[in-house]
Automatic annotation (TrEMBL):
Coiled-coil region list: none
Lineage: Bacteria, Bacillati, Bacillota, Bacilli, Bacillales
Stretches assigned to the VOC domain: 2-113
Entry protein name: VOC family protein
Domain of life, source organism: Bacteria
SUPFAM superfamilies reported for this sequence: Glyoxalase/Bleomycin resistance protein/Dihydroxybiphenyl dioxygenase
């Protein structure tokens, strides 16, 4: 069985879409203004974003983007930092990892084993 898609409710679809495209290589194939967007990864996974006014995920909720190596994790961390995101340096925990608050109201983990 293969997971087919994930839908996130976000406060700003356009900002969340741009973030996911810029830092994680997702491609938007359809959108309706700031109300809805359909993004795909290189493996055909469908990631949809829907506009919501009061987005509140549980404190530990996050999505993750696995990277091939520590260098890729460091590069994404540095790009985010340079672009003004509040990110801490990666740490060796359950993998080499860091978290970032994404535009739209959700948390992203970037990690490698």
């Amino acid at each position: 069985m293969k997971l087919n898609h994930l839908n996130l409710t976000v406060t700003d679809v356009s900002a969340a879409r741009g973030f996911l495209e810029k830092y994680f290589g997702l491609t938007c194939r359809a959108s309706r203004g700031n109300g809805f967007a359909v993004l795909f990864d290189d493996d055909g996974f469908v990631f949809t974003l829907m506009k919501g006014n009061d987005v509140q995920y549980p404190k530990t909720f996050h999505i993750g983007f696995a990277q091939e190596n520590k260098e890729s994790v460091d590069q994404i961390n540095q790009r985010l930092k340079e672009d003004g995101f509040d990110v801490k340096p990666p740490q060796q925990l359950h993998g080499y990892t860091f978290y970032v608050e994404a535009p739209g109201g959700f948390t992203v983990e970037v990690l490698s084993q």
